[in-house]
Design brief:
Length: about 350
């Protein structure tokens, strides 16, 4: 029998995740962390597929002595920040930490135990720790051709970032922890997630936590396996969405500025300026950019011609989509994501 409540709650906003939700939940249910220490809260934003049926079926088959609590709630406002704020209202008093998750990721069986160990180690030296992120990798065993190309793209120096898809091997401070374990009292101190951010709500949250005096860290050993996009169309839409919401974050938190994210935009302005001043020189930055993309493709040639051609193409889509999103974010309000449809 359970004699005390869990200290950890994993919050899982979902919408139409029938293809991935079972594997996702199984990876959380079969953890080495004792089941009495953990609970899972799923918030469904109105799925029109079999997501809810799959979750209820899993609930019915759970062994209450072996598995953590699994709860399913409706998220009437649909979006991720609304789900997470709703979770804060439903947390048992015993819960001191909240873990971010989503419906298309999986973790290894020692993930929660590794996060707990890293948190305790860091907290002893940094008592004001507010969040701890992990490293995100692609699920290579289940990747199709396009997913593999996009995974290689994210590993490229031209395609990675310091955020969710950062590649790192040292534990230390960060501004943007991925799939973070948060201190509940820190979340409550900054009033949770800003619901105006339909995307990049974690980036906004992190900046507000840092401004409030909390420290954020990331650790490389706990790994999250994340399914990549399965089409170049959804990849482009994702890139545009990230650029759009990066502008919204920067308007609120200028200190979040990262120069490398603006290099394609700077290149676009430089090319446009050259076209106006000296058209003969306008091709110089275009040729240079094309050469860099060509080299990036050659670096992946050992994976076949599909990667040699696909990585430069997906890099071009990433840079174009993100740059257009940056511009779009200056003139338009946010809307629901379409890149997973």
């Amino acid at each position: 029998m359970r004699t005390q409540g869990p200290w950890l709650a994993t919050v899982l906003p979902v919408l139409n995740e029938e293809a991935h939700i079972e594997a996702c939940l199984r990876s959380l249910l079969d953890q080495s962390l004792p089941s009495t220490e953990h609970m899972i809260m799923v918030f469904d934003g109105g799925s029109s597929d079999a997501t809810q049926e799959i979750i209820r079926s899993i609930q019915e088959g759970l062994d209450k002595e072996k598995h953590p609590i699994l709860q399913l709630y409706d998220n009437p406002d649909r979006f991720v920040p609304h789900a997470r704020n709703l979770a804060l209202k439903h947390l048992p008093d015993s819960v001191t930490h909240v873990l971010e998750f989503n419906g298309h990721i999986e973790v290894y069986s020692n993930h929660l135990e590794q996060l707990k160990s890293a948190w305790n180690r860091l907290e002893s030296a940094h008592p004001n720790i507010g969040g701890l992120g992990c490293r995100v990798i692609g699920d290579e065993k289940q990747q199709g051709k396009i997913e593999s190309i996009l995974d290689s793209t994210l590993k490229s120096p031209l395609g990675g970032s310091n955020g969710q898809f950062a590649i790192f091997d040292q534990e230390g401070p960060t501004n943007v922890p991925a799939f973070a374990l948060h201190l509940r009292s820190a979340l409550e101190a900054v009033n949770g997630w800003d619901e105006s951010f339909l995307t990049s709500q974690d980036s906004d949250l992190s900046m507000r936590m840092l401004n409030a005096g909390y420290q954020l860290f990331r650790t490389p050993k706990p790994l999250v396996k994340m399914r990549r996009r399965t089409s170049f169309r959804s990849w482009f839409l994702m890139s545009h969405r990230y650029g759009f919401w990066r502008t919204k974050v920067l308007l609120k938190h200028p200190q979040r500025f990262v120069l490398r994210e603006f290099l394609p935009l700077i290149g676009l302005f430089a090319t446009t300026l050259l076209l106006m001043i000296s058209p003969d020189l306008a091709f110089v930055p275009l040729i240079a950019y094309g050469g860099v993309l060509l080299l990036s493709g050659l670096a992946h040639f050992k994976k076949g011609i599909s990667h040699a051609l696909g990585v430069p193409f997906s890099l071009f889509l990433l840079h174009t989509g993100f740059t257009l999103g940056l511009i779009d974010g200056c003139v338009r309000k946010g809307r629901a994501s379409r890149d997973r449809s």
